[in-house]
Amino acid sequence: MISRKPKVDAMAGRDFERAAELFAVLATPVRLRIIGELCASEKDVSHLLGAIEVSQPNMSRHLSVLHKAGVVSKRRSGTHVIYALTNPSVVTICKVVCKEMENDVVASYGATKI
Q1: CA–CA dist 99, 69 (Å, integer)
Q2: In the chain, pLDDT over 90 holds for what percent of residues?
Q3: CATH of the domain at 79
Q4: Residue 103 lies in a domain
Q5: 85, 38 in Cβ contact below 8 A?
Q6: Domain span at residue 56?
């Protein structure tokens, strides 16, 4: 008798692919800083450029990657382009990782909470 894997396995495979794609998008410090800036509220490009020291073309490239991945949305307001986080899972992932890094620093240096 031939055993067939349930469709759930196929879905899990696609889920792993999507997760790997998301982690690839998040694997850049500039993108993590952009996400950090957008956690509190939506921001326009000029605000992001003031908060993160990168060139305008570099910022546009990173925002484009985040937008294509569905991490951020964008809208026009007059001459400004406003970006906002659209994927709450990204915020959760970033907060968990940052908290873990904070715990590692405290454990390594005996420091108080950062």
Answers
A1: 24
A2: 54
A3: 1.10.10.10
A4: no
A5: yes
A6: 8-85
- Is residue 99 in a domain? no
Question: Which bin fits 110, alpha (ψ -120 to 50), beta or left (φ > 0)?
Answer: left
Residue range 52-72: average pLDDT? 96
Find all residues with CB under 8 Å of 49, minimum gap 6, and list them: 56, 59
How many domains are there within the chain?
A: 1
3-state SS, 1-69, equals CCCCCCHHHHHHHHHHHHHHHHHHHHCCHHHHHHHHHHHHCCEEHHHHHHHCCCCHHHHHHHHHHHHHC
Instruction: Please tell me whether residue 74 adopts helix, strand or coil conformation.
Output: strand
How much is the mean pLDDT over the chain? 86
Structural domain contains residue 91 = no
How far is Cα 88 from Cα 37, in angstroms, rounded to an integer? 14
Identify the pLDDT of residue 109.
79
Model confidence band, residue 113 (pLDDT cutoffs 50, 70, 90): low
65 within some domain: yes
Q: In angstroms, how far is the first alpha carbon of the chain from the final one?
A: 60
